[in-house]
Structures are given as structure tokens and as C-alpha cells.
Amino acid sequence: MTTAAPDTAPAAPRVPPATADPAAFKVVPARHPARWAGAAAVLVLVAQFTHGLATNPVWEWRVFGDYVLSETIVQAVWVTLQLTAYATVLGFLLGTVLAFMRLSHSPVLQTVAWTYIWVFRSIPMIVQLVFWFNLSALYERLGVGIPFGPVFWSVDSDSLIGTIGAAVIGLTLHQAAYAAEIVRGGVLSVDSGQREAAAALGIPRLRQIRRIVLPQAMRAILPTAGNEIIGLLKGTSVVYVMAIGELFYQVQVVYGRNGRVIPLLLVATAWYVLLTSLLSIAQYYVERRYARGADRTPPPTPLQRARRFLRDLRAAAARREAPVTALHLGGESR
């Protein structure tokens, strides 16, 4: 006796019934209560801080206004800018040389560059500045002559270097150690095929570096270099140990004389914020310039966005006035 085999065919998938008109669905916008609560808390804190700035008498805004543009402070800002400019230019020039020494195939150049970077990154800047400030205790006179032989010309160390010179030397040598690693990282980011192609075309080594490698490496160098320069601008305050009249030192002198510590510190803060903002703007435009080869259509700058916004506002105002003018002219013609 045989039995019929059970039906093992798979069941057909269930198809949902056709929905009605999509307009019948209720659209519920996404809600983000935590985001709104966080934004409200931040706004409350900002409002409290702003209210404290405006109402707390300890800030002494009148004293701030008296000193922020005073001749003493402006001269100190100029000294700060000079120290920053000298250390930046000289530090990155020396750092570029050190970077290519580390990339050299010569073990001597590699060892010397690595040792320099290791030493100057290990010693705090303030220690280096004090050392160079007291260089005359180690070498009373500096001269030019034959190595290990007679000296043809010499001069007193203090008269040759001076206080500002010692500060520039200390800042430059310290900055060069960090600039070397920044430049080396940018050079390593350039594809090796670029150098190989340049060598195959017979382009001299120095021209390869100057016209091919460095322009491409600048895109990787600039962001970190910009941060380093801004850090150097604020790091010049360390030279107060050498009694140089830069911004922070002069602020200390003034509030040591009149006892107005908070408003004078606010003066220094305002100037550092202003100078840092200007450096950030310069960094933005320099990065934009070196990004032209990679980005054919760079995004508009904030100034271009502002101009476009004003043009859109004027165009919208003109469109609103045009129908009224046409209607007015039509009524006069009748």
C-alpha cells in the first residue's frame, strides 16, 4: 500500500496589500531632545559668561581701554612680532636643511641631523634661552680663524650677540628642530615617482627639490607649520626671563607697578587673540594657494561668500520692487 508524498513545495511569499494614497501617511519629523537640551545648556553658559564679562567690576574695562593701545603695549607687541618673524624664517630655513640631511643617504649627515633634533627637542625652551643669555660665561670671546689654529679676528660675546640676539638664537635653534620634522614629513608625503620622473628628465637635484618636491609637499607642511608658528608667537612670552620688553613682560611690568593684574592680563590676551587670528587667516589663504593643483574648483572664501550673500540680497530686493514699479507705470499709462 502506497501513501502519497507530502507536498513540500515552498509557500509563496506573502505580499502586503497595496497601500492607499501616500498622502494619507502621517509624516513625523525626527526629534532630538538631547541635542536641543545640550544646545540650551551651552547657550545658558555663554550668556552667563557674557553677563559676567559685562557686569563684573574686577575686569575693569576702563583700565583695559586705557592700556590696550598704549605706546608701551604697542611697542611690546612689535617686539613680539619681530621675535616671531626672525625665529620663523631662520628656524624653517635651518629646519629645511636638517630635514634633507635626515633624508640624505650619507650616514654622517643623517646622524648629525638626528642628534640635533633629539637634543633640541629634549631641552625646554626656557633652559635654552637662559643658556644663550649666559653664553659669555662659557665663551668670553668669539672669533674667526683656522680650526685648532690661530684666531685672526675676535670680538666680545656680549657685544656680538646681545640680549635680542640671544633670544633670536635660542628661539631659532629650538624652532628648527620641530620645523625639520614638519618638512621631512611633507617631503615623505610626495610620491617617489615624482622624483624618479624628474631624475629621468635630467633635472638637477636642487631644482627637483625647489620646483617639484617642495611645492607638492607644502600641502602637508602648511597645516602643521601654521600651528607651530602660532605656538611660537605665544612661546615668545618665555623670553621674559631675559628681561626683553615683549608683550607679556611689559604687561607684568605695568601691573607690577599699578596692581591692576586682571585688566592687564586681559590686554595681553586680547593682543594674542588678535595676532593668532591674523596668522590663522594668512594660513588659510596660503593653504588655498598651494591647493590649486589638487583642487581645480576650491570652495569660496568667507569674503566671497559674504559678497555673494550681499548680491543675493540686492537681487531679491530688486525682484520685489520690480512688479510694483511695473504696476505703477501701467497705471500712469492708463
Describe this structure in words.
The protein has helices spanning 33-55, 61-67, 71-102, 107-122, 125-133, 135-138, 157-188, 192-200, 205-235, 247-258, 261-290, 302-333; strands at residues 141-145, 151-156. The mean pLDDT is 83. With 334 residues, it is mainly alpha-helical. The protein has a two-stranded antiparallel ribbon with strand order 1-2. The N and C termini lie far apart (106 Å). It has a domain at 79-143 and 153-245: MetI-like (MetI-like fold). The relative contact order is 0.09. Helix 2 (61-67) crosses helix 11 (261-290). It contains twelve helices and two strands.
Short key terms for the protein model shown above:
single chain, 334 residues, mainly alpha, MetI-like fold, two-stranded antiparallel ribbon, 12 helices
In short:
With 334 residues, the chain is mainly alpha-helical.
SSE layout and pairing:
Blueprint: H1 33-55, H2 61-67, H3 71-102, H4 107-122, H5 125-133, H6 135-138, E1 141-145, E2 151-156, H7 157-188, H8 192-200, H9 205-235, H10 247-258, H11 261-290, H12 302-333
Antiparallel strand pairs: 1-2
